[in-house]
Design brief:
Elements lengths: L8 E3 L6 E2 L1 H10 L15 H15 L10 H17 L9 H12 L12 E6 L5 E4 L2 E4 L8 E6 L3 E6 L2 E7 L16 H11 L3 H9 L3 H12 L8 H14 L1 H13 L5 H10 L22 H4 L3 H33 L1
Helix pairs in contact: 2-3, 6-7, 6-8, 7-8, 7-9, 8-9, 8-10, 9-10
Length: about 350
């Protein structure tokens, strides 16, 4: 019979309080019933309040002036005072707390569960169109028939279980790596299974072999795409897109477009598709013209090949000429000032 706190009750009510799912799961594991007290009604759990009062008087008050240097030392002192409190005779009735426990409570006790209780977070999530639910920032698959359904999940430190209408429909090891979904093959529709089997069997050599059936330039472009990625698998989809362009534009045009992309060092699915859409593969290649400009202000490459000493000498001579000119100017200005005086 706990208080009506948020960790116990979701919605406090005088008649039917809703017990938090995590708390109710723990109580069910130990075979206990949860009956929250009413709001601001401490008499609903008078036994608990009286037990706290007695423990405060006979244990906490007795130890308030003592200093402990370890948790084990503190527990030993509490255990000693607790034994005295339990064996202390009642004033208004025969017996003690120990004798009543042996007579009433102990025969009614049940054995503890065989397994160890593990804290479980219980919540609800709705499966998306990709038949995955998002729990704690990670994606877990469910049977595709439960798409758009509201499902219950139970999350522990090791596993995640998904339930629909009280029946478990999925179980996954808990994921800790962000951005990596947990997808079971049996949860996928048939056409997705075939796609996944094809994707798993892909290798760089196999993708290059498919590209060679169109042309050597396509194979070279596909190789360049995979080499530009940190892992070749990251470029599989782009390579497949380049290969499938042959269905729309034909093998010859895709071969020419890949040749143009290789010459420009711009091998990517988007750029090759732009070349085909703009007709760049059908236009002749224009050579770059180099125009030599002869002008007094153009220094040329020889200027930058001069040694550092020549540049320093030039800067020194320039500084000297500037200093001489400044001195002449100062002398002239002084003479003008004397004439004016």
């Amino acid at each position: 019979m706990p208080d009506n706190r948020r960790s116990v009750s979701d919605k406090p009510s005088q008649y039917e309080p809703d017990v938090h799912a995590d708390f109710q799961y723990m109580a069910s594991f130990f075979g206990a019933a949860v009956i929250p007290a009413r709001v601001r009604k401490p008499r609903d759990k008078a036994k608990v309040e009286a037990g706290v009062k007695v423990a405060t008087m006979w244990i906490i008050a007795a130890l308030k002036d003592r200093t402990f240097f370890s948790l084990a030392e503190l527990n030993a002192a509490i255990r000693e005072l607790l034994e005295k409190l339990n064996n202390r005779p009642f004033k208004k009735m025969p017996g003690s707390r120990r004798s009543l426990f042996e007579l009433i409570d102990k025969p009614a006790l049940k054995p503890l569960p065989e397994g160890k209780y593990e804290y479980t977070t219980i919540g609800y999530a709705r499966a998306g169109l990709d038949y995955h639910i998002s729990v704690d920032g990670h994606l877990y698959s469910v049977p595709y028939q439960q798409t758009k359904q509201k499902l219950e999940y139970r999350l522990t430190s090791k596993t995640l279980e998904v339930f629909f209408q009280g029946r478990r429909i999925a179980s996954h090891p808990r994921m800790w790596i962000k951005g990596k979904p947990s997808t079971l093959k049996e949860h996928m529709p048939s056409h997705h299974k075939r796609y996944q089997e094809l994707y798993v069997e892909w290798t760089p050599d196999r993708v290059i072999g498919w590209a060679k059936q169109i042309g050597p330039c396509v194979a070279a472009a596909v190789t360049a795409i995979m080499e530009s990625k940190a892992h070749p698998e990251q470029g599989f989809r782009s390579c497949l897109g380049v290969i499938r362009l042959a269905r729309t534009w034909g093998n010859d045009r895709v071969e020419t477009a890949c040749q143009r992309a290789i010459s420009l060092n711009a091998c990517s699915y988007k750029y090759i598709k732009l070349i085909l859409e703009g007709g760049g593969d059908q236009r002749p290649v224009t050579k770059q013209l180099t125009v030599s400009i002869a002008h007094d202000n153009v220094r040329g490459s020889q200027y930058y090949s001069q040694s550092t000493e020549e540049n320093e000498n030039a800067n020194t001579s320039n500084n000297r000429q500037l200093a001489v000119s400044e001195t002449d100017w100062n002398d002239t200005s002084v003479g003008i000032a004397d004439a004016n005086a």
